[in-house]
Each structure stands twice: as structure tokens, then as C-alpha cells.
Specification:
Layout lengths: L12 H23 L7 H24 L7 H14 L6 H9 L4 H19 L5 H14 L1 H29 L2 E6 L5 E4 L2 H6 L3 H4 L13 H11 L6 E9 L5 E11 L7 E8 L1 H22 L9 H18 L3 E8 L2 H8 L1 H18 L5 E6 L2 E5 L6 H15 L3 E3 L2 E3 L3 E8 L6 H18 L3 E3 L5 H20 L2 E10 L5 E12 L3 E3 L5 H6 L3 H21 L6 E5 L1 H4 L4 H11 L7 E6 H6 L1 H13 L3 E7 L16 E4 L1 H4 L6 H16 L3 E4 L5 H10 L3 E2 L10 H9 L5
Parallel strand pairs: 11-12, 14-16, 16-17, 17-18, 18-19, 19-20, 20-21
Antiparallel strand pairs: 1-2, 1-5, 3-4, 4-5, 6-8, 6-11, 7-8, 9-10, 13-14, 13-21, 14-15
Helix pairs in contact: 1-2, 1-4, 2-3, 3-5, 4-7, 5-6, 5-7, 13-14, 14-15, 19-21
Length: 724
């Protein structure tokens, strides 16, 4: 059985065009074959013409399927045309239709050459048919002359179109963008192949499904909103950001440009051009996170994580504006750590930084209702209270903050106590803008520090004092160097004989403008500015020099010098003291160093270590202000002291308060039981003198026997007859 010739269905416009012209050419050849038997040619010519006409049809079909024709067979093909035309009667369409089909192969030059060869075959085939036929053939030759040109032009146009189409298809199908056409029923009508590589879906599986199945449930409303808005609006476009389902699971962010092309017959749907935005979103998220981090860093302290000065000022600006509008109050608390610089200098910045990091959580835990907790700078912090905070509530909060800060701080096996001074400024009473509130909270804080109280509310009367304090801070270093720092001496009496047994060195500042200033006016400044070490060494040097001069004059008066907290954290102090004793050629027994009980309680381990080193030099040590604390009782047996000084608060009241007298007696007995001397401070009445002497107290100091005085006056007093 003969099988029909199978011709594949063309996929491109050009291939379909060739197939169309093939059909015309084959039809022309077969029609010629059918017409040949009715002609006047010989039977042999007729048979040859029919065979060659059918052969041409078959040859063309085979060449079409192969996509090419042999150049060597071009003359044979022309000869076959000659034979067919010679045998066929009339004027068949074979030359026109055949040339049109064959001009689509071989290029323009071959098409023209083929036309010339076929037209020569035409004229030769009809050579014996007379002049009239010849003229008709010439007209046909001229008419067919355009066939190669038109065919080649069409060939170029179609190939160009196909190239563009293939390029577009390749771009669409292989692009990282995904093109989807959605019908009016919101079902996918066409899906680009690129969805396979981008989202892992087979295009065929997507076509026919609702586009919503690709979209995250939370984003479907945005897509529906576009469909609703685009209804009846050709070319209506909108940019969307949708999360699309990935074939491997999960969703990815896509930027979608949707366009209404329902009116376009070639589309008839919504065109969704979708681009993967995952990388962009990740980059945007990173940039947003970086911007947020930079903004956070710009507004927060890197050490503590608290808000910084810039954020505090901005929040103050907002809250004062709100308070002004609401006609209500606002409280700002400024906190400064006492003796922080000495701790930093002695234990190192690592310890100071660790302490500062611990302060923040304490403040936040203590004031959860606060509008803001900030580190202003250095060892200064601020707490901004919420609107409508009264001054009484601010004072309560200041007390709580101070207590929270005073909780023991442990570092490398040491326990340290840190205290703070708090200044309170109220809006609008003390200031109506950020600058004035900060300034007056600062004034109140330094006032609290200088007075030794935990907190203080701003008072206009202390403004001048604050300015003077700032001036003194700048002048103090020069005062230490230039000799404005002087030492007065308060005598220490034997309570049984009335003889002066020694003198306590008390520092004064001979200020050129303000006159003689007591220690309360500048010692806190020295502690705040790190000047305690040079100030203490100046006092020690002057006191030992005076002791040396007294000895030369025949007066053996040991001198006592007070040490502050920064001195007892200074590991170099014993070396400095030893050098000064050697400088003035004094026996260590001529120097006594006084340490307050509160200093010992702050860090007993470190203080006892330094006291032992001082004791090893042969220096006597005295525990000052005894009775005002409690923690040192546990360490009293370990302290290398030779003397207890009873705090004047007990001595001043003992002549009227039996309980105070009992406490004094108890301290004297405790000192003697431990093998220590007892010294009573603050003796201002004869009755207090008598009671102390009767209690067995060894020595005494007070205004009754002698106030602090220059060295010359004390020498004169010591040479007088002892007072009974």
C-alpha cells in the first residue's frame, strides 16, 4: 500500500508561506500534466511531459521537506520545464507558480538566473507556435520577471520578522522576568517558559489555573484591587509588589507591572510582567537595617546602650513643647557619680567602663515610668520624668536612684561603693527651654555634690555659687603649684594633762579674690577633677616641712594629715610618703595619717592593703569619724590603726544626751580593749571636756582648746603652761 507523503505542519510564518507556494507550484505542475494528453504533441512527448510534470511536483515536495535544492539539478529542472511546456497545450501557470516557489530558495542571484533559464525554456518550448504565441510568451516573461524580486523581498522580510520573533520569544521565554497573560476570568491564558527557571513551575501546569493560586493569600487583595480598577480602562497599568509561590515551597517577593490588554485581539487579557525582587528586597532590608543602626548609633551611647545627649535634647524639646501645650510640669534629673575619676585612674578604664554599663540597667529598673534614661557624657546620666511629675515625686525618684547606684559594685574580687549626686530642675519653674533646664539641673547637681547631700532641687540662690565653683575649678591647679594652698593646724591635747601632743594639718586656700577658703569650698572640686593626689602631696610636704622646723625649735609635735578616698585607691601613695619623709629627714613616727571610716567601708580589701603598706613604713594610722558607719566594725581587728577618733556628732551632744555619752564611753572602752588610743573631736564645752576625761579618753580636739591656726600661733600655744 502506498503511504501518503507526510508534510510537517510549519511552525513559522515563513515556512507556512513556502508551503503555500509549494502547493501552488505542485498544483501548476499537476494541472499541466493533466492538460498534456489533450495537446497536439507526439505520444512520446506527451508521456515525457506527464512524467516530468509529476517528477517536478515530487522533486519540489522533497526539496521543501529538506529545505534545499541541488544547484547541479537546476539545468535538469529547467529542461523538465521545457519538456512539460512543449507538450502541454495553451499557457499553463507552471512557469509563474513554479518560479514563485523556487525563487524562495537559493538567494537573489540564483533566483534571477533561474528565472532567465526557465523563461528561455518557455520561449524555446513554444518556438514553433507562431508569432502571436511568441509575443504572448514575451508578455509572460516580462510579467514573471517580478517574481524573483518579490519572492526574495518577501523572503527577507519574513526571515527578518522570524528573527525578531525568535529573539522576542527567546527573551520572553528565557528572561529572568516572568510574563503571564491572565484572562478576564482571572485564569492564566498564556505563561512564559521563564517561570520554570524563576519559580520552578511548569508553564503547562500554570495555564488554566487562577492566577491567585500563585499569589500569597495576604497579597491577593492588592491584585484584586488592580483588576477592579482596571475594568473598562484599556492600557491601565499599575506596579505591585506580590509574593509568589515557589515550586520548591515558600514565597518570593516579585515586582509586578500589570497592564490591561483585554482590548487587544492579539492578547485579550491582563499582561503581568513579574520580576524577582528578592535580592532587591534583601538589599533594601539591609540598607534599612543599616540606616536604622546608624540612626540608633547616632542617638545612643555605644558603651551603655542608653540614649545619648543628642537624643535627650531632642526628647526634651518634644516633651517641653507637650508640657507647654498641656500647661503641666516636667522634671529633669541629672546624675553624676562621685569620685568616678579616681576609680578610673586607679583601677583602669576597664573597671570604669564596666561600672558605667551597670549603672544604666539600675537606673532603668529604678525608673520604669521615665520618659527617657540617657548617658549625657562621662559619668553623667539623666532621667527625664513623664509629664505632670511634681517636684515631690522627683525628689522621691532622686532618692531611689541614689540608693540604686549605691548598691555594691564588684570587680575582680573587690567590692566598691559608688555614690551619686542628683540635681533636679522643673519645667516651667526653673526653665522653659532645653538649655536652661539642663543648665539648672547641672547647677543643682553640683550644689548637692558640694554640700554632700544625695540630691538637691535647683535654687536660684545657688546660681552665683555655681559660677564661682566653675571659676575655682579652673584656678585650683595653679593654686596648688603657686603656693596659694596653705596648711593650718589644730592642736591635739592630752585630756589628762592638758599638754599639746600633736597637731592635725588642715588645708586652706588663700584665694587672691575670695580670701581664705575652707576645705569644703574646693576639696569636692579636687575630687571631681582628679587633683586630690597633687593636693594631698602638697599638704603632706608642707606639714612635714613644718614638723621639721618645730623639731629644730625644740617642739616635738607629730602632725596628722587626712587622706581622701582617691588617696586610698592610689597604690603609689606609700612610695610618695616614704620619699617625703626622707626629704625632710623625719622619723615615720612623726607622721600620722587619718582615714575616715566610710572610706574603709567602701572597699575594705584595697584600703587595708594600702594601710598595711603605710604601717610597714612606721607611720601611725588613725580611724577618723568613728561611729558614723557600721561596716568597719567587722574589719576593725584587721585594720593596722593605733587610734580611734570619735566623731564630733557624739561629743557635741554628750553633755546633754546621756545616750550620746554612753556611746562615747563604749567607743573609748572598745579602743582600749583593742589596744588603741581614743581621741574625742568637737570639744566645745567644759562639760564635754570633763566627761571625755572621766571616760578615760586619751586625747581631744575642739574649739574649746584651740581652733585651726597658722603654724606660728600653734607653736606659741604649745610653749604656754598646759591648761588643766
Amino acid at each position: 500500500m502506498i503511504r501518503p507523503v507526510s508534510i510537517p505542519l510549519p511552525q513559522t510564518p515563513f515556512a507556512r508561506f513556502r508551503l503555500l507556494f509549494l502547493g501552488f507550484a505542485v498544483a501548476g505542475a499537476l494541472l499541466a500534466a493533466v492538460a498534456i494528453p489533450g495537446g497536439e504533441a507526439s505520444p512520446v512527448s506527451k508521456l515525457a511531459g506527464i512524467v516530468l510534470a509529476v517528477a517536478l511536483a515530487v522533486y519540489w515536495i522533497v526539496g521543501y521537506r529538506r529545505g534545499t535544492f541541488s544547484l547541479a539539478l537546476e539545468p535538469v529542472e529547467a529542461y523538465a520545464v521545457f519538456v512539460v511546456l512543449h507538450a502541454a497545450p495553451g499557457d499553463p501557470f507552471l512557469p509563474l507558480l513554479g518560479v514563485l516557489f523556487r525563487s524562495l530558495y537559493g538567494g537573489f542571484a540564483r533566483a534571477v538566473a533561474r528565472w532567465a533559464l526557465w523563461m528561455a525554456a518557455l520561449l524555446a518550448a513554444h518556438a514553433g507556435r507562431g508569432h502571436e504565441q511568441f509575443e504572448a510568451d514575451l508578455a509572460r516573461v516580462a510579467a514573471v520577471a517580478l517574481a524573483p524580486v518579490l519572492a526574495q523581498a518577501l523572503l527577507v522580510a519574513l526571515k527578518t520578522s522570524e528573527t525578531i520573533q525568535r529573539r522576542l520569544n527567546s527573551i520572553v521565554q528565557n528572561s529572568t522576568d516572568v510574563v503571564t497573560i491572565v484572562g478576564a476570568d482571572h485564569r492564566v491564558r498564556w505563561q512564559a517558559e521563564s517561570i520554570r527557571g524563576v519559580l520552578g513551575h511548569a508553564p503547562d501546569a500554570i495555564v488554566g489555573t487562577r492566577v491567585h493560586e500563585l499569589v500569597h493569600p495576604e497579597d491577593r487583595s492588592a491584585l484584586d484591587a488592580y483588576f477592579t480598577d482596571a475594568e473598562g480602562k484599556p492600557e491601565h497599568r499599575r506596579s505591585l509588589t506580590l509574593r509568589l509561590a515557589h515550586g520548591a515551597g515558600g514565597h518570593r517577593h516579585f515586582d509586578v507591572v500589570a497592564a490591561n490588554r483585554l482590548h487587544d485581539p492579539s492578547v485579550e487579557g491582563f499582561v503581568l510582567n513579574m520580576r524577582d525582587a528578592t535580592d532587591r528586597r534583601e538589599l533594601e532590608d539591609e540598607l534599612r537595617a543599616l540606616a536604622a543602626q546608624r540612626e540608633h548609633d547616632a542617638l545612643h551611647d555605644p558603651l551603655t546602650g542608653l540614649a545619648n545627649r543628642r537624643k535627650l535634647f531632642a526628647r526634651l524639646e518634644d516633651t517641653t513643647t507637650a508640657a507647654r501645650a498641656a500647661k503641666t510640669k516636667l522634671a529633669l534629673l541629672l546624675i553624676d557619680l562621685d569620685h568616678f575619676k579616681e576609680l578610673n585612674d586607679t583601677l583602669g578604664h576597664h573597671a570604669g567602663d564596666r561600672l558605667l554599663r551597670e549603672i544604666g540597667p539600675r537606673l532603668e529598673a529604678c525608673a520604669p515610668e521615665a520618659e527617657l534614661v540617657a548617658r549625657v557624657g562621662g559619668d553623667e546620666f539623666a532621667v527625664l520624668m513623664p509629664l505632670d511629675t511634681a517636684v515631690e515625686a522627683a525628689e522621691v525618684m532622686a532618692t531611689k536612684l541614689g540608693a540604686a547606684i549605691e548598691e555594691p559594685f564588684r570587680f575582680q574580687g573587690m567590692t566598691m561603693l559608688v555614690r551619686a549626686s542628683v540635681g533636679i530642675a522643673m519645667f516651667p519653674e526653673h526653665g522653659r527651654d532645653v538649655e536652661s533646664l539642663m543648665q539648672r539641673a547641672d547647677i543643682a547637681m553640683y550644689s548637692a555634690k558640694s554640700r554632700g547631700v544625695g540630691y538637691e532641687v535647683y535654687s536660684a540662690s545657688r546660681d552665683g555659687h555655681s559660677r564661682a565653683r566653675l571659676a575655682l575649678i579652673g584656678e585650683l591647679p595653679e593654686a596648688i603649684e603657686s603656693g596659694q594652698i596653705v596648711v593650718h593646724y589644730q592642736p591635739k591635747f592630752d585630756l589628762q594633762t592638758g599638754v599639746i601632743r600633736g597637731a592635725e594639718a588642715l588645708v586652706r586656700w588663700e584665694h587672691p579674690q575670695f580670701g581664705l577658703l575652707g576645705p569644703g569650698a574646693f576639696l569636692p572640686l579636687a575630687e571631681q577633677t582628679g587633683l586630690m593626689r597633687p593636693l594631698t602631696l602638697r599638704v603632706l610636704d608642707d606639714a612635714l616641712a613644718q614638723c621639721s622646723r618645730w623639731l629644730a625649735a625644740g617642739l616635738s609635735l607629730p602632725v596628722a594629715v587626712n587622706l581622701g578616698a582617691p588617696n586610698l585607691l592610689d597604690l603609689g601613695l606609700p612610695v610618695d610618703v616614704k620619699a617625703l619623709l626622707e626629704k625632710w629627714e623625719l622619723d615615720p613616727s612623726m607622721l600620722q595619717l587619718e582615714i575616715t571610716e566610710t572610706i574603709v567601708a567602701a572597699d575594705p580589701v584595697r584600703v587595708i592593703e594600702i594601710m598595711n603598706k603605710l604601717g610597714e613604713l612606721g607611720i601611725e594610722l588613725s580611724l577618723d569619724d568613728f561611729g558614723t558607719g557600721s561596716s568597719s566594725l567587722a574589719y576593725l581587728r584587721e585594720l593596722p590603726v593605733q587610734e580611734l577618733k570619735i566623731d564630733k556628732s557624739f561629743v557635741l551632744g554628750m553633755d546633754e544626751d546621756p545616750e550620746a555619752a554612753t556611746i562615747v564611753q563604749t567607743i573609748v572602752d572598745l579602743a582600749h580593749n583593742l589596744g588603741l588610743r581614743a581621741v574625742g573631736e568637737g570639744i566645745e564645752t567644759d562639760e564635754a571636756y570633763r566627761l571625755l576625761a572621766e571616760s578615760g579618753c586619751d586625747f581631744g580636739q575642739g574649739f574649746l582648746m584651740g581652733r585651726p591656726m597658722p603654724a606660728g600661733e600653734l607653736a606659741e600655744l604649745a610653749l604656754k603652761t598646759p591648761v588643766k
